Amino acid sequence: MARSGFFISAGKRLVTGPPLYYLWVLLLLVLAGIGVSAYAVQLKTGLIVTGMTSYVSWGFYIGNFTFLVGVAAAAVLLIIPAYLYDFGPIRDIVIVGEALAVSALSMCLMFVTADLGRPDRVWHLIPGLGILNLPQSLLGWDIVVLNGYLFLNLFIPGYILYNAYRNRQVNMRFIWPFILLSIPWAVSIHTVTAFIYNGLAARPFWNASILAPRFLASAFCSGPALVIILYQIVRHYTKFHVKDEALHKIAEFISIAMAVNLFLLFAEFFKELYSNTHHLSPLKYLYLGLHGKGNLIPWIWTAFAFNVVAFVIFLIPATRKNFATLNLGCVLIIIGIWIEKGMGLIIPGFIPAPLGEVWEYMPTTLEVLIAIGIWAIGLLILTLILKIIIPIETGEFTAAGTVANSELRHGQIAA
Amino acid sequence: MSDSNKTTQETATIRRDKKDRATEAPACGKDSIQPDRRSFLAGAAAFLGLISVSSCSWQEFVQNHFQRMTKTEIEETVERLRAEYKGKYGKDFVVGTEAPIDGTLFGYALDIQRCIGCRRCVYACVDENNQTRNPQMQYIRVLRFKDGNMDLEESSIYYDPEEVPEKGYYYMPVQCQHCANAPCTKVCPVRATWTEPDGIVVVDYNWCIGCRYCMAACPYMGRWFNFADPVIPADQVNTQTHYLGNRPRMRNVVEKCTFCIQRVRVGKYPMCVEVCPVGARKFGNLLDPDSEISRIISTKRVFRLKEELNTQPKFYYFFA
């Protein structure tokens, strides 16, 4: 009875909102619809509708997937100060970060599915029914860690919020191990994803030990940058309170992560340029072009410029604490890392091909439409989750339907 | 939205010759639908038909991994495939399931000194192994090098002279190297590809989920993906097939050279060996010390491609 009561009132909350909410949801639904239609064409015709070939066999989908794994992993940067160091301003808002992780993970799974030639055979991956090639296949491991992380990020906030909704005390002894587990798990999703590429001796561009550390460093830039923007949107449109202090703390993390990211990039550049072996070719293709071909040159230099400018913005306290420049820096980082970790990472891995051929790749319109559709579905998931959890957090939405007992929130959880 | 649809159509048209569309047999009669404006707009409805569109029959959908099927299940599957191929090409197919012969480990050797770069092997392979003609696919790439180096990045497969061999160049055909330490089989998330006891690296086309991780892992361009429904004119299709080899494939799965498993398991040479006009290609049992391949390895100076990657190919190159 109580449970169905929750779902009914949650459902009501989802369908009521200001005009802007309807407009936003409608926009996302339209984009999602276009994406789904485009995907139907891909299903019926085959992956030939994409720009991928047997030379460049992964492209835009896997690029977006890689970027989004980073976004999901970055929730750990909120979880550590919130739960371990009990840093008040972040502890109060960590749940929004976890919601972002959930929507990023759902997008990851959708992008991988879109990339799959035979989605009708996904059951082959289910252990027992099918065969999950563990421990050999890193893709197998990635499926395990991504789904595990999705579970943790649904379960932890779900448990805390449901208790808040029911006005019950949270049993910390029960939930604490899950919170602790989610920290290394967040690192693991990005490490395993890096290892998917890293383990391939056939692709010198990926087969460098620096890949996993760089993955983490760049993830800790892009994820938190998204979080900063998301928090400002949330606090503008809801009663959810986010202290500036929390945002500035996150900005500080970003400046450190970006410094590490740029340093690792420099280390990679040095090794390849100074030793000047054939392993330099993919990097040369990416930044300068190879055999007269260089589709990615403008993209990667944009990413480089954006990352450097953002680094400067985040480094200087005055620009870091000014919201205009802070937001500019966030946008630059999101775009910069999206290019660098997406197309900029995946495509040069395939160029030149193992037998030396330079075969370029660009996504087709259909591929881009499918990707937009997936982003729209992901944002829709995020919107709907926030629509439910924020009122619970602020105490507007409880079983009793009163605001009186709304004090039961994270303040008591961490006690 | 209509604009995007147009782009889709254009892409599809550019890549698939219009002429060939007419001859193109549908993958599975009832479900083959060409994309059109209406279906694009009615995408949500089409999405519900995901399973019916992307798999041909219920039996195919639930089909087990080849190595996990019982004898009867394999027989039933072979019968179903034969009926499917009959419907598609109007011919009776042999879909063999010959097991590896005890005491055999197949190896290959290629004499770079003799190869003239004529590409007869490339085309014979396409015919023998039922590779799609549109879009095109070829398992063998013949690399042309300028005398004086063996730098893959300087090589080219796009040479088109009046006559081969050309002065100042030499040729090196590359195909699946059937590595003893294969990076491709290791990465497959569903074990749809594996090394048979006789050393042949095979793919179960009905188990492959089309993730293409194996293609990223292969250092030799040994794997190819069916980006669209494979097209083979009915009069050119080879009806002598093997389940793990040259039986007709479906779209969105990976395929590769199998040393002509349908031939070598019944005592014949691979097609590329048979067709080579200069006898540059040698094939045999590595476990038999008196076989030609064993004698070449013990008496000639051989090398393997990208030996530094420790893939341990069973494909040797030599200079006779």
UniProtKB/TrEMBL annotation, chain A:
Source species, domain of life: Bacteria
Keyword Cytoplasm: no
GO cellular component term, pick one: plasma membrane
Keywords: Cell membrane, Membrane, Transmembrane, Transmembrane helix
Record carries keyword Cell membrane: yes
Compartment(s) where it occurs, according to its Swiss-Prot or TrEMBL record: Cell membrane
Family annotation (Gene3D superfamilies): Formate dehydrogenase/DMSO reductase domain (1.20.1630.10)
Annotated membrane topology: Multi-pass membrane protein
Pfam families according to UniProt: NrfD
Residues that span the membrane, as ranges: 21-41, 61-84, 93-114, 138-162, 174-196, 216-234, 246-267, 296-316, 328-348, 368-390
Protein family per UniProt: Belongs to the NrfD family.
Name of the protein: Polysulfide reductase NrfD
Gene: nrfD
